[in-house]
Design goal:
The protein is α+β, with helices and mostly antiparallel strands. Helix content is 31%, strand content 16%. It contains 10 helices and 10 strands. It is globular and about 65 Å long. The two termini are 36 Å apart.
């Protein structure tokens, strides 16, 4: 599948892009920043993660071992644009800002959820799956639109350097709410049944492969991003990390990515912040009275939007 891309923001067909985003749930902005700038940001992220004492999130290692032979993640730098404001040009630049205005409208906000990942991989999910499991349903409202602004700091070229997504799934019920709930019980029953395990082996995983949906969906594809591209996608869109073509392959220096969330300036921006505040370990910065957002606020205002 050829991804929806925007080469020249000065000649945007806004109605066509909005219609395609509504249908597919994503848009690719090539060359948002230069490759030289990518290398500078990679260096800054590595320095800050190497100097922090915590911040490494657990990966779903059991499933990932089916496709990876990866070392544990090196780290996740939270509240990125406060801790490393030099990286703000990922979002605060003309190409990305103009595309966000097309997707979200002129009145949008950047949410206090910006992170850098180094060596982190994940299985299939939507970024609203966990919230829905916990009873948060604001993402089902008709005026909801919160997007992820993602930048991969290396080419996605068969070594797991980017994102695999499933177009159009933001318009459908999230199957992983149920799949996550049922998986442990199914795995436990499989472990107690020698016959089912044998059939799974003899069928080459076609039978009783309860983990398969977490790894592959027939309509999904790897987005062919280059270092410095920005991928904007609806939080409800099913996606996972790109898998390498061979176990053990990974980008030189490790996979790095940046994610920040942006929303229409409506009640759902507040709903999202209320939700992430309940995840204290990952979002402890939102409970820090000394959090200094001065530079982030100034830069966002220069580009005509607000940072929460």
């Amino acid at each position: 599948m050829t991804p929806l891309t925007v080469e020249k923001t000065s000649n945007l067909d806004k109605e066509a892009i909005e219609a395609q985003f509504q249908r597919d749930g994503y848009v690719l902005v090539p060359g948002a920043i230069s490759r030289e700038r990518v290398l500078e940001i990679r260096k800054g992220i590595a320095e800050r993660i190497n100097n922090q004492s915590s911040g490494v999130f657990n990966q779903p290692a059991e499933l990932l071992q089916k496709v990876y032979s990866q070392e544990p993640a090196k780290g996740i730098l939270t509240d990125l644009f406060v801790n490393y404001p030099e990286a703000l040009d990922v979002a605060c630049n003309d190409k990305v800002t103009e595309m966000l205005k097309v997707v979200l409208g002129d009145n949008f906000v950047m949410l206090p959820d910006s992170t850098a990942h180094w060596g982190y991989y994940n299985i299939m999910h939507a970024d609203t799956t966990t919230a829905e499991q916990q009873g948060w349903m604001y993402h089902k409202e008709s005026d909801y639109r919160i997007v992820v602004v993602g930048m991969y700091l290396q080419d996605n070229q068969g070594d797991g350097g980017g994102l695999y997504l499933v177009p159009g799934t933001h318009n459908e019920p999230d199957p992983f709410v149920k799949l996550r709930r049922e998986l442990p019980g199914k795995q436990a029953k499989l472990a107690k049944s020698p016959l089912k395990r044998l059939l799974r082996t003899l069928s080459l995983g076609r039978l009783y492969n309860y983990e398969k949906p977490f790894l592959e969906i027939p309509t999904g594809f790897d987005v062919p991003t280059k270092a410095g591209d920005v991928l904007i996608f609806d939080m409800r869109l099913l996606h996972r990390s790109s898998f390498p073509l061979e176990k053990g392959l990974q980008p030189e220096g490790g996979k790095m990515s940046i994610f920040v969330h942006a929303s229409r300036n409506n009640q759902h921006a507040t709903n999202y912040v209320d939700y992430i505040k309940t995840k204290f370990e990952a979002y402890a910065h939102l409970h820090n009275e000394d959090r200094n957002t001065t530079e982030q606020t100034r830069r966002c205002e220069e580009y005509g939007f607000t940072a929460l």
